[in-house]
Design brief:
There is one protein chain. This protein is α/β, with parallel strands linked by helices and about 240 residues long. The protein has one domain: Rossmann fold (3-Layer(aba) Sandwich). The longest helix is centred in the last third of the chain and has 16 residues.
Length: about 240
């Protein structure tokens, strides 16, 4: 059984049909990429799945219909989103941002342990634990956004454009952590404009165009697909 299953998912706003009845699934332990050009509907899809946008169709999580549930309930069930643009709390410190990610947990000792685990995962954040998040570099803010999401101990992590605006060396560091999180057993749905990078790290992929899924398959076959190579890999 799939951990996540979206069927006939539709999202409209402002008279625009942003997502037009797509089907996708993510099995437990998988990392699945969702690629496509700007405006294809990728971010809208993630927001609908995690309860931030009203949608048509069905979203199932571990076999349970969670359509229409508010986002905070989905976090309690084990779904976490790292949003496009990071969305850190700029005036709060690094450590305070991490604590915000653990709001579903009442065990103070566990929260302390999880913070230390994040500092082990992101050593640069440990050096800056008391620093205001708004003063961090873009890459450090991305690390913090991922760490904050992981503080809720998700079983399913939705990642929206983690490489956006980052230098290549920082992208490499971020994706080393993403791979480690996946290896630790967290299921990941990854939206990423860098199609080659996304398909290199994932098991399977979906290609979105104009609100529709136009291609899907294992990552190796998509990397070898002439349409994908021409449209998204610059060949």
């Amino acid at each position: 059984m799939s951990m996540l299953e979206a069927s006939k998912l539709k999202v409209s706003y402002g008279g625009i049909n942003a997502v037009k009845g797509i089907d996708l699934h993510v099995d437990a332990g998988e990392m699945v990429a969702l690629i496509g050009a700007n405006g294809a509907g990728k971010t809208t899809t993630l927001k609908a799945i995690c309860g931030l946008l009203h949608h048509g169709g069905r979203v199932r999580y571990n076999g349970e219909d969670v359509s229409g549930r508010p986002a905070y309930q989905l976090v309690e069930l084990g779904i976490a989103l790292v949003p496009e643009g990071r969305g850190v709390f700029g005036r709060l410190s690094v450590e305070e941002n991490l604590k915000m990610g653990a709001y579903v947990c009442n065990d103070k000792a566990l929260i302390r342990d999880e913070i230390e685990r994040m500092f082990h995962l992101f050593s640069r954040l440990k050096e800056r634990r008391g620093q205001a998040a708004g003063t961090l570099s873009g890459g450090e803010q991305q690390m913090l956004a991922i760490g904050r999401a992981l503080m809720s101990q998700p079983r399913l992590l939705l990642l929206d454009e983690p490489s956006m605006g980052l230098a290549p060396l920082m992208v490499e560091k971020i994706f080393e952590v993403v791979q480690q999180v996946s290896d630790d057993g967290v299921t990941i749905l990854l939206v990423e404009q860098n199609a080659r990078l996304a398909l290199d790290v994932s098991n399977r992929g979906y290609v979105m165009e104009s609100g529709l899924v136009t291609l899907s398959g294992d990552s190796a076959s998509l990397l070898d697909n002439s349409q994908v190579r021409q449209a998204y890999l610059g060949e």
